[in-house]
């Protein structure tokens, strides 16, 4: 049974209770093994499983992987933005960019001394940390305090000599899939263990050429495939191992550790505190949770960290030393995380420290003259950028004019300025703001070529080129959708900046956080390591007033004389679907002149009687009926295409032929091969909030069916309501759950290491 109420993947907190929920959050993240695994609302919403289909843009739709151990597992998902060029697909370019970034991180890792060496036995600090977990769990202290030499403080980063590795995209082909003979051999092993043979390509991609032998030797490696759950891997292992399959098998414990860390990443965490991880292992039936963690660490499948929680007062430490007393040990927390996110977070901290500590090169007088041409928060932003390498800027939709003013000022000073948005729609709106002044004249010449998407910038499909050392050829980079940066994309951006370049992270801190793990923008705001400019520009009109109130926890009555906001009460999900179709097809076009193709429908989840699947089916029947002869699609269908992890491109179906399904996404032709259509394309009249974030429509219909009450949070409501420019209809079936969510359900915390890493490198707060 599907439910619309669950919009975040399973976290370690509820890992002991399998659920059939249909999370919104799956669609937007990175894959765990060859397919896209989403992170949707991440910490904002909770309750579902960890995966969904790649077509889910921001939350898996719960389509099950059946047959593994006699139960269902959900697929994997993706979300995103941007567009795919005709000559070379952006998916291919981004895959190449990500592959090279992984290689760079691997080289960086090799230069560091890790907590343990792969394949070795635990010793030293790692063993001490694990031995101390019992003290942590006792509740006597908020975190473990370890006696021993204090870690040497890291020096503030000076101007580095290294440059980011070049990200070459020209001529690079798509990531090679497993060989046909490997897939066939894996298929036979899966059949022997009673698992769906359709998983063979994913298993081959996850485990490589030796997949058949590795899977037979360790059946729990099946957990590396997105959508497979521990109980299903257990059933597969029982079929292959027979009496040798035991709950205390070291292979099982190690695999469940990795699976739980993947689930945590899906929910937005870059690492887990050790007590939380061991508790989740116990819930999953791992008899010796500590041994399982040790095994995963010893095999290099996870990393362990000791992060200081606070600095003891310097005066107290000096007094103790003078009195001959032993200095108070530093309280720390013990974290365990996956290597890819741990190294990305460290790389991000290093890069940010490099940017923060860089000295401005331009004349302060020139910047001051530029600031004098504007007023208010825009002038403050320009002055802050004049003297600092990293600046944070917060504000709503109307406040985007302020980084636009900064962009224009930088261009007027002769600097190479680039702005990178989360979506193609955001890119186009910002470009229009830059290129047209209030009187209709040209404001910034040729600005459109330097306003890009983040994905296009990283892949090389858009924006400036790179110098011979791989750094982007720019002097100022403005990111107007900074809350949507996860640690991996943020690390790639920062590592690509040349020495001396300025970085401005701008965005609305009240919207949903990134689909991928981390909370980069929120962490930087909390760390206070650089100037922060808070916009005083309010969002206009009744919708702006309503959304601004939601952002501070208040659901206010707003005067809407032009019926900019309409509440449509419904009794059940069936009525919600009926009224939604009526609004999109008839009421909104007739009353407000907004055609149905310019109206978006937003609902909390994919499943349930009023989820995206049910709504899209009803909307297709009314707006573009057809037999769905092209894999369920017809020409003219609105769709969401998810070509790579963390991307969701709204588009239209054009046609289908032997090459695949032809789409038009953001004005660019996209061809989806036949074998990828089912996993990467879904209908797109109705979206989830994470699929919609970063874009706006003239009209929005937000559907809140009764079974969605538990999925609602202040960031979700703020994001969904804020997608409307001229008109907002709320199909309301949750009664008092709506004001309660606005007032009482903030964003859920995410466990990250970025603030601690930054404090070590940038000790002086601004």
UniProtKB/TrEMBL annotation:
Q: Where is the composition biased (Low complexity)?
A: 166-181
Q: Which UniProt keywords apply?
A: ATP-binding, Helicase, Hydrolase, Nucleotide-binding
Region named Disordered: 1-123, 139-181
Q: Where is the composition biased (Basic and acidic residues)?
A: 1-13, 99-112, 152-165
For this protein, the record's InterPro entries field holds: P-loop_NTPase, RecD2-like_HHH, UvrD-like_helicase_C
Q: Where is the signal peptide?
A: none
The answer to whether the entry has keyword Lyase is no
Q: Highest taxon of the source?
A: Bacteria
Q: Which Pfam families match?
A: HHH_RecD2, UvrD_C_2
List each copy of the ATP-dependent RecD2 DNA helicase-like helix-hairpin-helix domain by range.
Answer: 183-270
Q: Which residues form the UvrD-like helicase C-terminal domain?
A: 683-731
Q: Does the keyword Membrane apply?
A: no
- Name the Gene Ontology molecular function terms of this record: helicase activity
In Swiss-Prot or TrEMBL terms, this protein is called DNA helicase RecD
Species classification: Bacteria, Bacillati, Actinomycetota, Actinomycetes, Kitasatosporales
């Amino acid at each position: 049974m599907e439910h619309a109420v669950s919009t975040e993947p399973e976290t370690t907190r509820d890992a002991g209770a399998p659920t059939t929920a249909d999370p919104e959050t799956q669609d937007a993240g990175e894959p765990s093994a060859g397919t896209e695994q989403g992170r949707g609302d991440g910490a904002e919403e909770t309750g579902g499983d960890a995966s969904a289909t790649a077509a889910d843009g921001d939350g898996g739709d719960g389509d099950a992987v059946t047959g593994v151990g006699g139960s269902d597992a959900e697929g994997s998902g993706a979300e995103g933005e941007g567009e795919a060029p005709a000559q070379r697909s952006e998916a291919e370019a981004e895959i190449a960019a990500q592959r090279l970034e992984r290689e760079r991180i691997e080289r960086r890792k090799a230069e560091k001394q890790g907590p343990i060496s792969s394949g070795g036995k635990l010793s030293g600090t790692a063993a001490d940390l694990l031995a101390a977990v019992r003290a942590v769990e006792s509740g006597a202290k908020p975190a473990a305090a370890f006696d021993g030499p204090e870690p040497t403080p890291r020096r503030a980063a000076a101007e580095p000599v290294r440059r980011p590795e070049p990200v070459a995209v020209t001529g690079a082909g798509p990531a090679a899939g497993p060989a046909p003979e490997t897939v066939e051999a894996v298929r036979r092993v899966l059949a022997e263990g009673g698992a769906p043979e359709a998983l063979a390509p994913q298993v081959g991609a996850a485990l490589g050429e030796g997949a058949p032998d590795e899977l037979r030797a360790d059946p729990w490696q099946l957990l590396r495939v997105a959508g497979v759950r521990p109980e299903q891997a257990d059933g597969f292992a029982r079929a292959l191992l027979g009496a040798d399959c035991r709950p205390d098998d070291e292979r099982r414990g190690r695999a469940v550790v990795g699976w739980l860390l993947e689930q945590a990443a899906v929910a937005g965490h870059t690492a887990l505190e050790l007590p939380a991880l061991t508790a989740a292992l116990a819930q999953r039936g791992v008899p010796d949770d500590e041994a399982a963690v040790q095994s995963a660490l010893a095999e290099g499948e996870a990393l362990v960290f000791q992060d200081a929680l606070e600095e003891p007062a310097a005066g107290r430490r000096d007094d103790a030393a003078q009195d001959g007393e032993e200095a108070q040990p530093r309280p720390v927390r013990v974290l365990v995380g996956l290597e890819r996110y741990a190294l990305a977070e460290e790389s991000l901290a290093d890069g940010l420290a490099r940017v923060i500590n860089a000295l401005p090169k331009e004349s302060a007088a020139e910047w001051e003259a530029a600031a004098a041409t504007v007023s208010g928060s825009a002038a403050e932003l320009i002055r802050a950028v004049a003297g600092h390498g990293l600046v944070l800027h917060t504000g709503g939709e109307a406040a985007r004019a302020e980084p636009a003013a900064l962009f224009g000022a930088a261009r007027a000073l002769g600097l190479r300025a680039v702005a990178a948005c989360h979506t193609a729609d955001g890119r186009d709106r910002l470009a229009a703001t830059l290129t047209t002044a209030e009187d209709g004249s040209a404001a910034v010449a040729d600005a459109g070529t330097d306003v890009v998407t983040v994905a296009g910038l990283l892949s090389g499909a858009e924006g400036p080129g790179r110098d011979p050392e791989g750094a982007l050829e720019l002097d100022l980079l403005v990111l107007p959708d900074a809350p949507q940066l996860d640690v991996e994309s943020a690390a790639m951006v920062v590592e690509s900046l040349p020495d001396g370049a300025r970085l401005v992270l701008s965005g609305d801190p009240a919207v949903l956080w990134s689909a991928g793990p981390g909370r980069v923008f929120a962490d930087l705001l909390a760390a206070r390591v650089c100037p922060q400019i808070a916009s005083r520009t309010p969002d206009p009109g009744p919708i702006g007033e309503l959304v601004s109130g939601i952002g501070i926890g208040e659901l206010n009555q707003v005067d809407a004389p032009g019926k900019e906001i309409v509440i449509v009460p419904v009794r059940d999900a069936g009525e919600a679907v009926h009224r939604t179709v009526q609004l999109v097809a008839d009421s909104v076009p007739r009353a407000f002149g907004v055609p149905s193709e310019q109206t978006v429908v937003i609902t909390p989840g994919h499943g349930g009687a009023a989820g995206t699947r049910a709504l899209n089916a009803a909307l297709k029947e009314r707006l573009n009926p057809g037999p769905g002869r092209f894999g369920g699609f017809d020409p003219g269908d609105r769709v969401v295409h998810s070509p790579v992890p963390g991307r969701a491109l709204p588009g239209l179906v054009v046609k289908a032929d032997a090459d695949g399904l032809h789409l038009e996404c953001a004005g660019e032709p996209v061809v989806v091969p036949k074998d990828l259509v089912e996993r990467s394309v879904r209908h797109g009249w109705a979206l989830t909030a994470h699929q919609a974030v970063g874009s706006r429509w003239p009209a929005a219909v937000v559907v809140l069916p009764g079974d969605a009450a538990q999925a609602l949070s202040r960031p979700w409501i703020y994001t969904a309501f804020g997608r409307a420019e001229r008109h907002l209809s709320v199909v309301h079936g949750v009664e008092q759950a709506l004001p309660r969510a606005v007032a009482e359900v903030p964003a859920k915390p995410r466990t990250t290491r970025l603030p601690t890493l930054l404090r070590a490198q940038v000790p002086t707060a601004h």
